[in-house]
Amino acid sequence: MKQALTFKVLCTYLSLLVSLFLFRWQFWAFNHRYFSFQLMDFIHGVRFDLSLVGYLAFFSLPMFLLLGIIPNLKWRRYGLIALSLLLFIPCLLTECWDLVYFQYTLKRCSFDLYLFFGAGEDQSMWQPMLQRFWHLPLLWVAWTAAFLLTVMRIYKKVDDHRALKSLVIGFSTLFVLAFIIARNSFGPKPLGILDATSFDAPARSQLVLNSPFVVLKSLHNKPLTHREYMSREEEKKYFNPLTAYGAKSRMSQPNLIFFVLESFGAAQLRDTVNGLPLTPFLDSLFFMDPTTVYTDGLSNGKTSIECLPAIFAGIPSLQEVPYVISNYCTNEVDGFPQIARARGYSTLFFHGADEGSMRFGTTVEQLGFKSTFFKPKTHGNPQELGSWGYHDGAVFTTMLKELSRCTKPFLSAAFTLSSHEPYDLPAFHQKKYPQLPKEASSYRYTDDCLRAFFMSAKKEPWFANTLIIITGDHTPVHLDNSTYSIADYYRVPIAVVNGKFKKQGPIEHLNIVPWLCETLGWRVKLYGYGNDLKGDHVRYLNGIYHVWNQHTYLEYNEHIQQWKLRVNTSDNPRSIDSMKKRFLAKIQRFRNDLRWNTLHP
Q1: pLDDT digits over 375-404, tens only?
Q2: How far apart are CA 332 and CA 321, in angstroms?
Q3: Please, what is the average pLDDT of the chain?
Q4: Distance in angstroms (rounded) separating the CA atoms of residues 25 and 20
Q5: Could you tell me the pTM of the whole model?
Q6: Are residues 160 and 57 in the same domain?
Q7: One domain for residues 293 and 332
Q8: In a domain, 239, yes or no
Q9: Interatomic CA distance for residues 526 and 520, integer angstroms
């Protein structure tokens, strides 16, 4: 029986819809430790699958119509099959990417992140990543073959000799239907990414969504949400990012060294694998050395690119896109290295990869680091060169040489990379700890490199007058969603070493510089969202704002203007209202400062 071309095209879109539904099961299978099984997630997800297929149909139906009137049956069939694959393959690629990358960010990737990885120098990591996750290319081939066989069967016969008028009427009907399905809403706005947060658990929205829908909806970064929650006068009453630090005590200008450790969470400390401790040096330094102030602190993001602006410029991660790849990344900031340079400090930054990696080159320059040492300026032997760049041992050796010859005082920062995929550590280290898996071995490697750095640094005359700040950039990928609170997703070590302080140390990345300025007696006016060392913690994850302190934990879904109280042990009935006001003042000020380029005093 002959079937109309419109029916065959409709079958193609139905095949895409079924594929998206199966992709969601695959996504859950790879990341099930983050989501307990709930059938309703898969049912709700069909709405987003339908919307995506509607958009694909809306833009591809005219091409299907043009192919349908090609006189040559052979070329008509080939064209219809090729166009079907052209719609399917981008969906498959984005879904395969998020099978792995979701574990690093706990969210599906938006379009800007694909541009970031596609255009940057991090492309050198693709080959080792593909080698580590070798099953993804196999999945891609299997899915492509299955879909190809499906569409070949659909277009086995394409001898539709209907008149052009009939084809146009049929395709016009599908076109209108596609528009309605794509919008998936009878309101003024079509279905969007944040609509997935309307369900109970915000983290589950990433299972409800599909990856190509997120990419499609983020092709152009939308402007910041513009909501006036309160007047400017009331906003200042509840929050002000400007704080003046005075010389309450004698001003001190020690050397300052920052170590930012890649993927180091607080849980990696005092941990053992196969009977071998992963961080014996850091354990002794943090928990036994009387010159150390240590905190189980909090990072301000889930990715490396969110860390440096938080630590050195007080910029939080309170928007969908990280600051350094947002539309506002060129805003003027008053970074701590810039402040230190005005006080006579030499400022140096060290990282083993190329300066384009994670956009660190432009970021640290904007923050005020004068001298930068990336891969080309790192002194190491071939064994210490991995696929991403020089490993930590070579970076620390270069750092020691440069600190010994630079003008004092200095502010130096080193961002490690060895505890990041693909963990291609130097052969001599792998032979030393054969009982450790790659990831665990990377923590031990960085720990050993830090021990060697400290042993050499203690022999230098500048060491006695040096404060060393050590923290992790974000928690590692492996978290068990069923046993972790929101705070645990950001729990990293924060330690100030080689000083004698009786006061509590900084609580989160945003607090580190304000804590130092207050402790060292610097007379300075700081802009930042961590100046209040006892303030609320705020994180943006999966379309939801998480706001908590010692007594209360709130969630705010701005999209539907809904608050949820998760925990409350406060005896003060007004505390929750005050907490909400503080948050709304903070988010309002942050957006205005981004919009009007006032991220500085």
Answers
A1: 999 999 999 999 889 999 999 999 999 999
A2: 18
A3: 90
A4: 9
A5: 0.86
A6: yes
A7: yes
A8: no
A9: 14
Q: Are 487 and 477 in contact (CB under 8 A)?
A: no
Amino acid at 465: N
Residue 585: φ, ψ to 5° = -65, -40
Q: How confident is the model at residue 321, as a pLDDT?
A: 85
Lowest mean per-residue pLDDT among 42-46, 121-125, 277-281, 451-455: 121-125
Question: How far apart are the C-alpha atoms of 238 and 258, rounded to whole Å?
Answer: 32
Q: Are residues 116 and 134 in the same domain?
A: yes
Position 28 pLDDT exceeds 90: yes
Please indicate, yes or no, whether residues 128 and 94 belong to a single structural domain of this protein: yes
- Statement to judge: residues 299 and 419 lie in one domain: yes
**CATH number of the domain where residue 404 is located:** 3.40.720.10
Residue-level pLDDT at 482 = 46
Residue 323 corresponds to which tokens in the numbers above? 């600051």
State the CB neighbour count (10 A cutoff) for residue 330: 10
Among candidate residues 509, 445, 446, the one with its CA nearest the CA of residue 473: 509
Range of the domain at 583: 533-601
The mean pLDDT of 150-157, rounded to a whole number, is 92
Report the distance separating Cα 447 and Cα 441, nearest Å. 10
Q: Are 477 and 104 in contact (CB under 8 A)?
A: yes
Domain match, 338 and 368 both: yes
Q: Which bin fits 326, alpha (ψ -120 to 50), beta or left (φ > 0)?
A: beta
CA–chain centroid gap for 255, Å, is 31
The pLDDT assigned to 107 comes to: 81
Who's near 66: CB < 8 A, 6+ residues apart? none
